[in-house]
Specification:
The complex is a heterodimer of chains A (412) and B (163). Chain A folds into two domains: 52 residues, no CATH class; 345 residues, Cytochrome-c3 Hydrogenase, chain B (Orthogonal Bundle), CATH 1.10.645.10. Helices cover 48% and strands 11% of the residues of chain A. Chain A has 19 helices and eight strands. In chain A, the strands form three sheets. A three-stranded antiparallel β-sheet of chain A has the order 1-2-3. Chain A has a three-stranded antiparallel β-sheet with strand order 6-7-8. A two-stranded antiparallel sheet of chain A has the order 4-5. In chain A, a hairpin with a 2-residue loop joins strand 4 and strand 5. In chain A, helix 4 packs antiparallel against helix 5, helix 5 runs antiparallel to helix 18 and helix 6 packs antiparallel against helix 7. Chain B has 163 residues and is α/β, with parallel strands linked by helices. Chain B has a single domain, classed as Beta Polymerase, domain 2 (2-Layer Sandwich), CATH 3.30.460. Chain B has a five-stranded mixed β-sheet with strand order 1-2-5-4-3. Chain B has a two-stranded parallel sheet with strand order 6-7. The chains are: A mainly alpha (412), B alpha/beta (163). The interface between A and B is large, with 50 and 42 residues.
């Protein structure tokens, strides 16, 4: 087992430019986390020379639950609530690709209405998760106003999700072949009001946080990831897009209604912490656009059961009655121990923190043979090891906050 | 770009290396021998597949082998970004050793550590093969192998309470 020496790893990656001074000896080892209020449920072991980080070793796994193994013992549909626990405020984004993988094995496509409903919830979740990220980021760098504001405003989106699904978090909303509930009658008005509110509010966020001279001093030029290095390290989501990589799973392989709605993917070239904050900020604006379009579409088109006919045709009369009265698709009994034909599928979706990938293998039973999950934070963890060295200890919370690392999702 | 076009590109890149092609839904994978893996991976990288999305291992206990597949795609080439291509190999269950691909794709580093602890697969020449998520006590049991069985604890009581 060899230990990385400072300088060596960077030159291998062509990163010499970021080294600030030569390291000799007398290094301190500092354990940041897991009990540190800033670091969440993970530990970063850093070695410092004076104030400069020489080596960083992310030590993950404090909230690990072996979801991949647990999934092998559960029926297909019961895995949805399990996987949601990775990122509860981002529940629809995290599970929708698992559902898409199942749909690929079943060889079905959800009806258009279900696609729009899922897209709507995905974007509501994305805004909620970005605001959560902003809040944590704010408090990391000592900007507690941002923390208070974004956690308060997140409530608007959580409330909207509750109106749509009945649950504030962990909605378990997408199911194979569709979605579980249609929008309530008064939803479009509420959604438009929220969008109007956020457009006004984002301007205030920009003034107090992104364009604040104190914040900019802390963020600008910190944790720079050049484009080539970003591709080499395989970072995802806002981290990649802040480094000039135009990659978004919604563009690369459009799922649900993303090939029908109009949106842009914000890309920044700087690659520093400030650019990563800006990407998230601009993404919220794009999500608002998508929410408007999805709500318009849902309002224009007649209400019908948002689930594939293959399941809906077989459902008992009570289920249809419930749908007519409440707009709710009661979970179909045949889904509880549904058997999937043997096959293998992969699907990806863009969560707030980046792309999540599921590999699903079925051997014809009612439980999966293998489910492999690669979550965005797990792929971004490598940033600590290769990017943090060379910066000051004070910059570590900035780097941590800017990549929006989320331990439960990374550990799975 | 669709999977058929991607297949052509990869087959061209891998010319001269014997590979078994398997198609799944949403991806395509090429299984080569352990000896050829590093060479095949380097050629894929040259063809533009610049990062590893997922390192997936499946334990086929009945056949006595692990299938290890690196699912790769591209960031810098926007055409290739739409497809997921797998390059992998099979190793016997009783002696799971294989060369590391960290020097080809740095993005595989943490995922190889993960596979090492969950399946006990030894990546030769990996620069930093340590446990990532598990404690040594749990990692010893190789939790993702099929012979590790999770017993579910009953939630509902089936017998009436006594006393």
């Amino acid at each position: 087992m060899s230990v990385w020496v400072y300088g060596e790893q960077k030159s291998e990656l062509g990163l010499e430019g970021t080294i600030t001074r030569k390291i000799e000896e007398d290094l301190y080892e500092v354990f940041i986390g897991p009990q540190h209020p800033g670091s969440g449920h993970m530990r970063i072991i850093i070695r410092i020379d004076g104030d400069i980080i020489v080596e960083a070793d992310p030590d993950m796994g404090y909230v690990h639950r072996t979801m991949e193994k647990l999934a092998e013992g559960r029926e297909w549909i019961k895995n949805v609530p399990l996987f949601e626990r990775m990122a509860i405020q981002d529940a629809c984004n995290v599970t929708v690709s698992y559902i898409i993988a199942l749909e690929r094995i079943l060889d079905i496509e959800p009806p258009p209405r279900a696609k729009y409903l899922r897209t709507l919830l995905c974007e509501i979740n994305r805004i909620a998760a970005h605001l959560y990220g902003f809040g944590i980021f704010g408090v990391f760098i000592g900007h507690s106003t941002m923390y208070m504001w974004s956690f308060a405003d997140r409530e608007v989106m959580v409330e909207l999700a509750e109106r749509l699904t009945g649950a504030r978090l962990t909605h378990s909303y997408p199911i194979p072949g569709g979605a579980r509930k249609d929008i309530p009658q008064d939803f479009p008005q509420a959604a438009r009001k929220a969008v109007r509110y956020f457009r006004r509010r984002l301007e205030e966020y920009r003034k107090i946080f992104l364009d604040n001279p104190v914040t900019r001093k802390r963020l600008e030029g910190v944790g720079i990831i050049p484009k080539k290095i970003a591709a080499e390290l395989g970072v995802v989501g806002p981290v990649a897009r802040a480094s000039g990589i135009k990659y978004d799973a919604r563009l690369a392989e459009p799922y649900d209604a993303y090939d029908e709605v109009e949106f842009e993917v914000p890309v920044f070239e700087e690659g520093d912490a400030l650019a990563r904050a800006w990407v998230k900020f601009e993404e919220i604006k794009q999500s608002l656009r998508i929410i408007e379009q999805a709500v318009d579409w849902l309002e224009r088109h007649p209400r019908e059961a948002p689930i594939h006919d293959r399941f809906w045709a077989k459902s008992p009369p009570l289920w249809k009655k419930v749908f007519e009265a409440e707009g709710r698709v009661k979970l179909l009994p045949l889904m509880a121990n549904m058997k999937l034909p043997p096959g293998r599928a992969m699907a990806r979706s863009e969560t707030a923190r980046g792309e999540i990938i599921y590999y699903v293998e079925s051997d014809g039973k009612s439980t999966p043979y293998r489910v492999r999950i690669v979550s965005p934070s797990a792929r971004n963890a490598i940033v600590f090891k290769y990017i943090a060295p060379g910066y000051k200890v004070m910059d570590l919370p900035t780097i941590y906050g800017s990549i929006d690392y989320f331990p439960p999702e990374a550990d799975r | 770009m669709d999977l058929a076009q991607a297949r052509k590109i990869v087959e061209e890149a891998l010319s001269g290396i014997e590979a078994r092609v398997e198609e799944g839904r949403g991806f395509i994978e090429f299984i080569v021998s352990k000896e050829n893996l590093v060479e095949a991976a380097s050629r894929l990288k040259k063809a533009g597949f610049d990062h590893v999305k997922s390192l997936t291992v499946v334990d086929y206990k009945a056949e006595g082998k692990f299938k290890i597949v690196y699912y790769v795609s591209s960031y810098l080439n926007e055409d290739l970004a739409g497809v997921i291509v797998g390059i992998g190999t099979e190793v016997p269950r009783d002696n799971p050793k294989m060369p590391t691909l960290v020097y080809v794709w740095r993005s595989a580093e943490f995922q190889e550590r993960e596979v090492f602890e969950f399946f006990g697969i030894d990546f030769e020449d990996h620069p930093d093969l340590r446990l990532l998520l598990l404690t040594p006590q749990v990692a010893e049991k190789r939790p993702l192998r099929k012979d590790f069985i999770v017993k579910e604890e009953p939630i509902i009581r089936t017998t009436p309470p006594t006393g």
